[in-house]
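Whiteboard transcription, Tuesday session. T.W. wrote the structure tokens on the left side:
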């Protein structure tokens, strides 16, 4: 079971990657592609909403205990121009709403399965390292313009039809022009229930420390359902409810994965 989340906690992209990883225990190997749509909206402590459309294309290659992933996203942000896709407030809000779009932050990661039990109720432990490249245009407000580096531990324990999930990670924030960003701990906890042989659903609680001195921590819940269409295709859908000034008020999305 492999996991490589996106650069921002509390996005639909994160939920989709968790769902993909939760299904990887079924024996997927080789190469896979994932794409879809993620939409979120929130005021992030301001008076105007920021609406974000996120369309990722993720390639995954799995070999033995290793899995490598690369995500190249398209991002469109409509709002007062002061919030990035990661929920980071860049500057003072504008009085008029604008729309900016383009390449988002490319994310690369590698995961190693350090421990994996066999049998009906396995325990799996993964170590993941990630680099978020500052490819999103900071002048348009699509990103910070800096590279970020993350390391995390993921644990999965299955008991019958239920799988408990947990993540603890640490992110080193890059030197963004004109911003003071703090390194942060982040994590998630939740579970997946196997409804049928092909369909699963669950809940994930996500947490992250604040990245700016005047900002807020991120907190939110994702509810999702995942369905294995056939041996090669999987689909996921989810909704997100954020409950902090650094989180979207709500979000929703769907992802489709093709394994080769």
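and on the right, the sequence the group agreed on:
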């Amino acid at each position: 079971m492999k996991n490589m989340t996106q650069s921002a906690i509390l996005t639909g992209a994160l939920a989709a990657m968790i769902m993909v990883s939760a299904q990887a225990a079924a024996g997927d190997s080789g190469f896979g592609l994932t794409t879809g749509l993620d939409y979120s909206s929130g005021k992030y402590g301001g008076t105007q909403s920021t609406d974000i459309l996120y369309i990722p294309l993720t390639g995954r290659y799995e070999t033995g205990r290793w899995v490598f992933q690369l995500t190249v996203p398209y991002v469109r942000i409509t709002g007062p121009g002061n919030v990035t896709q990661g929920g980071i407030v860049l500057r003072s809000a504008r009085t008029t709403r604008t729309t900016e779009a383009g390449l988002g932050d490319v994310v690369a990661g590698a995961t190693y399965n350090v421990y994996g039990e066999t049998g009906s109720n396995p325990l799996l432990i993964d170590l993941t390292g990630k680099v978020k490249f500052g490819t999103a245009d900071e002048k348009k407000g699509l990103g910070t313009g800096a590279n970020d580096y993350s390391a995390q531990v993921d644990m999965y324990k299955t008991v019958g039809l239920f799988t408990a999930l947990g993540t603890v990670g640490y992110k080193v924030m890059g030197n963004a022009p004109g911003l003071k960003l703090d390194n942060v701990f982040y994590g998630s906890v939740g579970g997946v229930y196997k409804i049928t042989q092909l369909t699963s659903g669950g809940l994930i609680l996500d947490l992250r420390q604040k990245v700016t001195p005047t900002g807020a921590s991120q907190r939110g819940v994702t509810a999702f359902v995942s369905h294995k269409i056939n041996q090669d295709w999987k689909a996921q859908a989810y909704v997100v409810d954020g409950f902090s000034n650094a989180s979207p008020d709500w979000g929703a999305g769907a992802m489709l994965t093709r394994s080769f």
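Someone added at the bottom: The radius of gyration is 17 Å.
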